[in-house]
Write a structure and sequence with these properties.
15 strands; elongated; alpha+beta; 15-stranded mixed sheet
């Protein structure tokens, strides 16, 4: 073993094959040469301009179309155009929402006032009826309590009452024109202030209110005011002013005031009656009354000639509201004893029966013992709504 360790090792190295290396180098060199020869076409500098192939120029040609030859249209026989029928205009439907929208827009206070002083659309039927609130003074267009016809005022959606027409025949033809019962004698009552207790029903709602008639007889002139008021509901007033002549009251101005005022102006010199509401004027005739003066004029006629108006007779009077006018005809009925808040009184009853669909039935009681002042009035509408006004106190001037 020592022998083996002491023996120097001999490393055998094989000499590289030089020939093979040379051949490999020659092969690599030849390959590079081939690559370099072909590279100028792709990677080398551009060819000289002369060596470049000529660039092809792009030429565009514009081709203009020839104008079309003018063509002469062939003559066409004229055919008369057919008339185009115009489509009938569709009727414009009125929005009941004048009622419903207005009702939503108007404050509750207005609706409440209409309860004691409803307005009725200005229709001939409505106008013909007196208000049944005021015993003696027709509470113009709006005061049902003052027994005057509220037919003139436009209906308030929230509380207006439709034109009244209870009992009479709706088919009866209206009078041809204004008519008037001649005055045979006149004896107007002295000045007085009458207070009334009022109750009524409107659209199923019962209510109570107070009314007052302030009558001022100055001999040659007069002033009459009917006021209706209710707690929390508001008030409404109807006023008549004018002269006193041989045949009784001669109104000059009639007004109806609640939220706003509308008025009628009597112009005998022009033979017409005009309205502030811009409704058409109506003829003036001698003896024409308004919805307040009519009740006092009737009392004056009864007092002036009681025997001239027996039961069954009638009295016609051309009566003016704040927007139009109509003839009111009253039937004289038998005497009747009433028990009123004021006390028991013998009375003469006059009633206006409805002649058309929406007329009101108006009943008025006059007390001979009190100078034929109106002591009770009642208006009944075609739908059953009513207002009843009864004398509760009397102050004579």
């Amino acid at each position: 073993m020592n022998r083996l360790l002491n023996t120097p090792s001999v490393l055998t190295r094989t000499a590289p094959p030089w020939r093979a290396l040379l051949a490999l180098a020659a092969l690599v060199l030849a390959a590079h040469t081939l690559v370099l020869q072909g590279s100028p076409k792709r990677f080398g500098p551009d060819l000289e301009p002369a060596a470049r192939p000529p660039a092809k120029s792009f030429v565009t040609h514009r081709i203009e179309a020839l104008p079309p030859e003018p063509t002469v249209p062939a003559p066409v026989a004229s055919v008369p155009a057919k008339p185009i029928a115009k489509a009938a205009a569709k009727p414009v439907k009125k929005l009941l929402l004048e009622g419903k929208e207005a009702a939503a827009q108007q404050p509750r206070a207005q609706a409440a006032i209409e309860l004691i002083a409803p307005e009725i659309p200005p229709t001939p039927e409505a106008d013909a009826a007196p208000l049944a609130g005021e015993p003696t003074v027709p509470a113009g267009d709006s005061l049902p309590a003052p027994s005057t016809d509220l037919a003139d005022g436009p209906a308030d959606p929230a509380g207006s009452v439709p034109p009244l027409a209870p009992a009479a025949s709706a088919t009866a033809a209206p009078p041809a024109g204004p008519s008037q019962t001649p005055v045979t004698a006149m004896a107007l009552p002295a000045s007085a202030r009458l207070s009334y207790a009022m109750n009524g029903s409107a659209k199923g709602l019962n209510y109570r209110a107070d009314a007052e008639l302030d009558w001022n007889n100055a001999g040659s002139s007069y002033d009459a005011r009917m006021t209706v008021s209710a707690l929390f509901l508001g008030s409404r007033s109807l006023t008549s002013r004018g002269q006193i002549g041989d045949q009784g009251l001669e109104p000059q101005r009639f007004s109806d005031k609640a939220r706003s005022e509308v008025a009628a102006h009597f112009e005998p010199d022009k033979n017409l009656i005009s309205f502030s509401a811009n409704t058409p004027s109506v003829p003036w005739i001698k003896g024409a009354q308004d919805r307040v003066s009519v009740f006092l004029q009737l009392g004056g006629m009864l007092k002036g000639n009681p025997a001239g108006f027996p039961p069954g007779s009638s009295i016609s009077m051309y009566t003016v509201g704040p927007r139009d006018a109509d003839t009111w005809t009253f039937l004289v009925e038998a005497e009747e004893t009433l028990k009123l808040p004021f006390g028991a009184l013998n009375t003469v009853k006059l009633s206006r029966q409805p002649r058309r669909e929406f007329d009101q039935k108006v009943e008025i009681w006059y007390a001979p013992a009190l100078g034929y002042l109106p002591v009770r009035s009642k208006i009944t509408q075609h739908n059953g709504d009513f207002v009843d006004q009864q004398l509760s106190a009397l102050n004579k001037s």
